[in-house]
């Protein structure tokens, strides 16, 4: 499965929203009310599990969650 589709699936599961139409420019943080601090923690945990990677929270910035493309890039660059 392509990583962007896998990320859509993770977002859909954690946020309980339809992500089928998400593209790189889809705004997340500040636009999707379900994406709050608690869901970000759950999202990061699930991303680490699904993509078999470790994300250091010290490296995270709000910009990583601004758009779907930014979040996908964070995963792809790990």
In words, what does this structure look like?
This protein has 78 residues and is mainly α. The chain contains three helices and no strands. The model has no long low-confidence stretch (mean pLDDT 94).
Search tags:
mainly alpha; 78 residues; 3 helices
Residue share in β-strands: under 5%
Query: Residue share in helices?
Result: 40-55%
End-to-end span in angstroms?
A: 17 Å
The coarse silhouette is globular
* pLDDT < 50 stretches: none
Total DSSP helices = 3
Number of strands: 0
Order of helices and strands: HHH
Q: How big is the Rg?
A: 11 Å
* Largest sheet descriptor: none
Structural class of the secondary structure composition? mainly alpha
Give me the oligomer status: single chain
Averaged pLDDT: 94
Topology summary:
Layout: H1 3-15, H2 37-51, H3 68-76
Give a summary of the structure in a few sentences.
47% of the residues lie in helices and 0% in strands.
């Amino acid at each position: 499965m392509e990583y962007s589709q896998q990320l859509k699936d993770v977002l859909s599961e954690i946020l309980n929203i339809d992500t089928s139409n998400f593209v790189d420019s889809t705004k997340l943080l500040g636009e999707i009310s379900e994406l709050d601090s608690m869901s970000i923690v759950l999202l990061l945990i699930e991303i680490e599990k699904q993509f078999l990677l470790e994300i250091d929270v010290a490296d995270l910035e709000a910009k990583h969650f601004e758009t779907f493309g930014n979040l996908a890039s964070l995963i792809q660059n790990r």
